[in-house]
Queue: 2 jobs
Job 1
Amino acid sequence: MDIKFEEYLENQKKLNDLKGEYLQAGLEDSEIIDRMREVSQKQRIIYNENQEILKDKYYCYLENSTLFDENSFLELQEFALSLSDFLNQADTGISYEIHSFLHKKALESGDINHIIEESYYHGLVLFYLDDRRFYDELVSCFKTSIDNIDKYFSLKKETRKLFNRSLGNYFIAINKDLSKYDINIDVAMKIIDFWKSDEVVSLDLDFPFYRWEFVTKRNICSLIDYFKLGYCLDNIDIINKVYESASYCFFSNQSVVKDTAMPVSSYISYLYYAASYYAKKITLEELCDNLSLLSTALEDKFSIESRTRVMRIGSSLIFYLQKLDEQGSSRVDLIKATISSIDEYIKSMPVSSFEKVVNKDVAQFIEMSLPRMTGDEVFDQILNSTAYRHFPTYVHVNMVAQISKELLNFAISYNPHYFIGYFDIHSEEEVLEKKEFLLDSIYKAGLLHDVGKFFVNDYISNFGRKLTNREYEIIKEHPEKGYNLLKRANLPSIYTDVALYHHKYFDNSGGYPEEYDNSTIENKPFVDIVTLADCIDAATDQFGRPYSKTKTFNDLLNEFDDGAGTKYSGLLVMMLHQDDVKAKISHLIGEVRREVTVSTIKLFANDSGVTKS
């Protein structure tokens, strides 16, 4: 591998190691701050180094295609594969960018081996990115094997391995389209028949066709998730095929299960019991009894197996218990106990383990448990499962909440008339009467404003280089993702409005999400305040954002003045120039931020469950 690429990989390791320089128990407050500054400076150096490496060794080919040759192809491919450590997220974003580029170059060259290789690698990264906008691109990548099946016997042996993996992944990709579930299963069966053909097997006797068949049949069972949504339930043939696939997996040798990418035997059992229920082999009550036994943690409490049992299978248990409850067989106490058990498990999970959990599992639990929780319980659960599990976000939302509360406090003092018409308030006297309620509401809204970042943490945690355009577009989805989660939770509209609109311009002329209009929303003044608080904290943060230059509050005031009436509320910007307001904000972004940062590091340094209700 090129020495520059090796330097890039070494820098990625350094970034991971840097976290340990301040996330240590027993440090004095002054030591923590000093180490944070040192780490931030080191991250900045790595950031600049990595940008130069990418500029010299990758971006140059985008600007001048004549520099690109076969040696460049192989070097970039090796580098991109080294970055595709999906469990540790070495650098999935750049891996995707390079594989996308190489895929295009392979298609242009007509080299069938390169085409199959890069169709697989490109598709695999897309699969892990798991973004709905990548669906067509994802399907197209894995479909390449189907389209070139007549060329199978002319491929290199290593390419044939990727070809066969692409066949299995093609089924996963097309299975996302619910309208074609019957066609999709036919495709899966034809793929399995291909692997069983004498001609294919005799060519590569050492290929693990048995494992690929197992994984494909396990993936057929993913239709159970669609059964839960009410799809396919009138199609007996589909249900029986899912049941047959689940039975095959369930009764397979355990060594086969352990030889797959997701060696979680309890999940195979879950699929079998659920498929048995839909195929009318067992009752709903029997299904719940089996899932109750499966949904407890093992001795290694936070292993992949245990997390799958407690969170994924436990959430499914809640779903089926609620169905049982709806049928008149009361399971209220068991539902509450299951919710409580998963909730406690999440709260007790070490931060180091939590960061490896698939976010979907936590989101699924939240969604399953929402109907059975009070408003305060929902608020605490969402907060504990999202913002308080990611160090930079933890600090940021705390700061935004405090800054928002202080800005609102000043705004009520300076101009209480500004808030008439909101929260059923009809006079300045009522504004003052409800002041504590309003302050508490905006504080909580500040804590939840970035809850959507829970779904894009892999991108906002990358301090090793500039974000790619694709990553930035994904990050821009966090307001809508947060809004949708809070909306499903039936939390007050101030929370949902703040989550959705805090990156929109005051006059709706810019910002994101572009398709939403914030000019006449229900909680406009409160959104404007959180938007301002969000900008203040992000721009003046001297610890958590080494990729951007820290600004002083005076620098910010000039920017706010320039954007008054367009990006920001003119009334709020005028208020920021008051001496008492400037003094309070300066205190918050100075002394208070240091206190919040230190207390957060101490909490995370213990590597134990983070609970902040």
Note: The mean pLDDT is 87.
Job 2
Amino acid sequence: MRLVGAAVFLSMVSTSVFAGTWVRTTSHKVTGASLSLLLTDGTVIVHKPETTEWWKLTPDNTGSYVNGTWTQIASLPGTYSPLYYASAVLGNGKVFVMGGEYENSGGTPVWSNRGALYDPLTNKWTTLAAPSGWGNIGDAQCVVLPNGQLILANPFDTRMASLNPSNLTWTPLAGAGKGDAFDEEGWTLLPDGTVLTCDSPNAPACEKYVPIQDRWFSAGSTPFSLEDPSSEEMGPMVLMYNGKVFATGATATAHTAIYTPGLVSTDPGTWVDGPQFDTSFGIKDGPACLLPNGHVLVSPSPGFSPPVQFYEFDGSQFIPEPATPNSPGNPSFVGCMLVLPTGQVMYTDHSADVEIYTPSGTSSSAWRPTITSAPATAAPGSTFTLYGKQLNGLSQFNAYGDDTTNAENYPLVRIKNNSTGHVRYCRTHDHSTMGVATGGAVVSTKVTVPGNIEKGPSTITVVVGGIPSLSKAITIGSGLAVAPSAVAVLQGTHKSGTLANIVNGTGSGYKVLSAHQTNDDYSELTQLTFAMPAGPTSFSEATFIARMSGVGIGSDTGQIFIWNTKKSRWDLFQSQPLPESGTVKEFDLDLSTKLADYMDGSHTVKVGCRVISALGNNGRKYGSFVGAVNLSKISYSLNG
């Protein structure tokens, strides 16, 4: 670092020691890595610049990315081999790429308008056409809005288009009010769903896109211009945990700025001057990311020249951090940062040296995602819906100027086996929102469990931006059955409530001997065992009525089982579709003609019920017994 005078230097850089550490990934086979993207199954894919090659890093069974496994995945279609382009992970888990400032062109800009879409499930790239009439795209801006729509800009003018991820159709947008072309801008998604940018040709003016109005509004101006006037380059902007945006500059005067949004989406908000880099340093394109400790990791260099240096911005000052092995020869623009689920950062620089940064410090509990509803059991290969708060995190976490976009504001789900300690990530998809900082709202994501996951008692955790939720218990089994957890005995007894407290409930003609759940793969049932009166060996009538319901997501099936004492097995007595939204479905079980098969020598009868969910073992279904053991045509009911 060049010193510009002790007073300026000390005001900008902390003299305290707060050093993170770098370590190189092991067993890597990739010979060059640029853009990195975090997929929703916990793997990372990286692109070898100006080639069709993509590589995947899978964490090992302890969750380590440093010791993970590299494998080559499918290549881009044909000869599409871009450098610096728009990219994003969509809400369905697929990967979008479009454009290319360079395309295997030997350093000559080509402004490609080619594109492709990657499906991790099939490991295939398919060609994706550009918006109609867009002959050139290059290093375009893009962002996924809270509703899942992807917005793409044309950097040569003010045109915008929206991609529907379901049918892959483009819709032109008006984007009215934009003050200048999108060239070299970076975009930052704000908690209210608007998109902030600092203008490049019109610096220091800033603007904000309000999707609901399809219009740009003024977002004030930075106190000093952040744009490099010769190249029109800008530095990255990162939404921090305090709701403010930290924007870095590319000018020789090395300014930064901090933005506070207004109270409503059309308010301009306010800017204040931030700390300065050394005056020979700035970020003319380059990465930044939000760390779990709340700091922003940045990497300025002297213009387009080396060396690159690393700092953590703690909200008021820069804290120097160690360099990577390639830092002496690297400018800032070759870097790409990606926050990993471990809270570490992957850094790529177009070379084979993929580095992992481990920051110091801890996160605030207020920044955690929270699980509000998750299954108690799940089957390998099943899919369920997980509900929670702040599942998308409070930021997009990763940023650049305009050349790289790899936001990760979506939840990852990992399951850790209690016995082995092994960690597996599930695939998340179809999130209810792609917004950031969703606060107290309950949001959701679909979770697909790996088919080859280890079975047994485990824990489930949501992680976003490297910050994990508190874990919940989950048992991985092979069935899709959900055992109801509570039964109440309302007629014929004086006991009601949970399974545990209705045991020994007595009515006229029977006694509840036990009430419990089984957990084996075949008969995960809520069971009730009844003692019939000693004496007669048969009854004129014996009937149960079971009542069950769905909860509004459809395709659930209720099943009633009777224990066959002669054959020592559960017999499926009835199986019927359940209604939705809590409406009760009644099942009549007339046992009169076969009671001898179902009553043992101790005059006991066992009845079981469960719910099969087509959506997987989501733990939110329930069933109950109502019904009646009619002895000499006298009814006694079990209700729930």
Note: The mean pLDDT is 82.
